Amino acid sequence: MSTIADLRLPAAETALATAFERAPAATFELESSVSKTRPSLWVAGVDRETADDAFVADPSVEAAELLVETDSRLLYDVTFAEETGTEILWNDLLIDGGSLLEARATDGWWQVTVRYRDRDRLCEAYDRLVDRGINADLRRVTDVTDADGRETRLTPEQQEALEAALEYGYFEIPRGVSMEELAEELGISHQALSERFRRAYETLVDAELQPASEESQLE
User: Fold this and answer.
1) Alpha-carbon distances, residue 182 vs 146, 156, 159 (angstroms)
2) E strands, the chain, where?
3) What whole-number distance in Å separates Cα of residue 66 and Cα of residue 74?
4) How does 95-121 read in b/e, with b if 16+ C-beta sit within 10 Å?
5) Which DSSP state fits 167?
6) What is the pLDDT along the chain (219 residues), one digit of tens a residue?
7) In angstroms, rounded to a whole number, what is the distance separating the alpha carbons of residues 55 and 77?
8) Coil, helix or strand for 18?
9) Residue 27 in contact with residue 105, Cβ under 8 Å?
10) Residues 177, 36: contact at Cβ < 8 Å?
11) Contacts of 72 (CB under 8 A, 6+ apart)
């Protein structure tokens, strides 16, 4: 049994507070497949000049290098100052072996999804945030049955990808392996691995919602 938690955290108390002040319409989303040493962030809802100015104004950001520009969003490689930005946030969340599944920020709030070994690890991570003075809002907690339990909704390919990611340190901060390297280990393309992760994350987050509802109705 593992535990998946959805948390809501104020940017003003965690990461990119000044960037949101300069670009309140921006959405920031962690990109998991680009760099294994620095956070890469997708920025949407603002133009390049506004995003550049927001990063420059934020004292927690040492450098922000534009990697990709599309019609709807921008991808930056971001270097944060020591003990600031997302680094300190991920340390609080992941120090006990948590795996970051998703992180995005909009309207001045971070929405993060983290997988823990059990609820005790989640409680310890939550307590660390509170002790730091962060107004953490625990929105949802889902217990997911492991593969050797009575039920799993992951496909064998998704299960293999997640197990390999844990083994090689893909979910660690900084990453122990890039998505490209992990895909090579599994003998599949980068695009195929990215799609397996996306579908697996969706399955894990939603896994217990319908069963829990059905069981409560039966009881």
Assistant:
1) 22, 17, 14
2) 2-10, 27-31, 40-44, 61-69, 73-80, 99-106, 109-116, 137-144
3) 7
4) eeebbbbbbbbbeeebbbbbbbeeeeb
5) H
6) 688 889 999 988 888 999 999 999 999 998 865 444 567 899 999 999 999 999 999 998 999 999 999 999 999 998 888 766 666 677 788 887 788 888 899 999 999 988 888 888 888 988 888 888 888 898 888 877 654 544 556 777 888 888 888 888 887 767 788 888 888 888 888 888 888 888 888 777 776 555 444 443 333
7) 11
8) helix
9) yes
10) yes
11) 44
As given in the structure block, the two tokens for residue 93 are 């969340």
CA separation for the pair 150, 166 (Å, rounded)? 22
Question: What type of residue is 97?
Answer: G
Q: How far apart, in whole angstroms, are the C-alpha atoms of residue 205 and residue 114?
A: 10
Closest CA to 19 of 49, 60, 48, 68: 60
The token pair that represents 114 in the structure block: 């983290």
Residue found by looking up tokens 């991808």 in the block: 75
Instruction: Specify the DSSP class assigned to residue 110.
Output: E
Amino acid identity of 141?
Answer: V
